[in-house]
């Protein structure tokens, strides 16, 4: 008598982290795979006129500008960063376009960066092309993904921030 092998599929369940505010390892947008760098991102923030709006629902025309910041886990790692960027949803007065683009965040005391060389990278949007603060900003969820590349070309972890405009 022949024995028959029976394959039993094994289901692995992975717990999901909460998505409110900024979360580690965002998977949307232009973020390259990886995260193998020893340089780590610790936190990210989206502020409209100095008030954090991570995980919040805001009204159209909520402010004059949006400041995006991302901080390294260790400020001394700044010397090992080649590039820090933020991917964002492209929108127009007609609505969300479904495309994503990116901007470079800087730690040089310009464009909204408060202190040069402190390991906090910033991008200031005053014209409403990136941030969710403008009167003509379409309703919807805005997902901002921060990530960097070290001097070896290896990608850091990524962080996501979410803001909903109604």
Would you kindly provide a written description of the structure presented here, covering whatever features stand out?
With 166 residues, this protein is mainly β. Helix content is 0%, strand content 43%. Strands 1, 4, 6, 7, 9 and 10 form a 6-stranded mixed sheet that branches. The chain is globular. The N and C termini lie far apart (69 Å).
Number of strands: 10
Question: With helices defined by DSSP (H or I, 4 residues minimum), what is the helix count?
Answer: 0
The N- to C-terminal Cα distance equals 69 Å
Radius of gyration: 19 Å
Largest sheet: 6 strands, mixed
Decide which structural class fits the backbone: mainly beta
Uncertain spans, ≥5 residues at pLDDT below 50? 5-31
Rough shape?
globular
In sequence order, what are the helices and strands, one letter per element?
Answer: EEEEEEEEEE
Helix content: under 10%
Strand content: 35-45%
Mean pLDDT: 83
Task: Label this structure with key terms.
166 residues, mainly beta, 6-stranded mixed beta sheet, 4-stranded antiparallel beta sheet, 10 strands, 0% helix
